[in-house]
Amino acid sequence: VAFLQRCLQLLLLPIPVLACLGLWDSFYKKLFPYVMAKLAPIYNRKVYKQKQELFSNLKKFAGPSGQLRLLEIGTGTGTNLPLLENRHLKLEHSVVTSGEDLHQIADGTMDAVVCTLVLCSVTDIRDVLTEVLRVLRPGGAFYFLEHVAADHSSWTYFWQKVCDPVWKYFGDGCSLSRETQKELEKMNFSELHLRHIHVTPYWIPSSPHIIGYAVK
């Protein structure tokens, strides 16, 4: 793995050099939103049915008034909005901050938190999940869909580890081999409903995913 990592790094040597000089981020952060705007609809078509099924029980977590207070961490290009009961959706406010620090949101005020394709690129998953638990009311739910590390005995995991050091440059800090399931299992959720899926094409290192929800 280490040998192939170095070979790949040598092939893409100009990118780490530009990153060290502070030039890569300024260039790619302008290009990344355009790339994501093109790729997000394609990806969303592939997982549309899974997302539709995932969010089908959102109403179950509505508060006593019947309203559902929902926080989405990392709305991106807004691909989840059509699935989040958008006919009745009212935007209260938008917060620009990191997922590790949601201090603008009071404790226990959210009925549901949604996070898709975000935990792969945060600085600290544990801090984000701690914030999720803090802002959720007791009985509230955290919905997730994330690409994750493959089975450690698989070729997919082998290539994830080979590509990881350079993947972050193209994925805005994204990691291919995050053990997100293990982090979810460590948190103090009362219930964890999770299953593994693969998103086509199956040969790409970001194909393995987990999808589900956890209850506070």
UniProtKB/TrEMBL annotation:
SUPFAM superfamilies attached to this UniProt entry: S-adenosyl-L-methionine-dependent methyltransferases
Keyword Repressor applies: no
Residue span, Methyltransferase type domain: 94-144
Taxonomic lineage of the native organism: Eukaryota, Metazoa, Chordata, Craniata, Vertebrata
Pfam families: Methyltransf_11
Signal sequence extent: 1-19
GO-annotated molecular function: S-adenosylmethionine-dependent methyltransferase activity
Species per Swiss-Prot/TrEMBL record: Cariama cristata (Red-legged seriema)
InterPro entries referenced in this protein's UniProt entry, alphabetically: Methyltransf_11, SAM-dependent_MTases_sf, Thiol_S-MT
GO biological process: methylation
Source domain of life: Eukaryota
Protein name as catalogued: Methyltransferase-like 7A
Keywords: Methyltransferase, Signal, Transferase
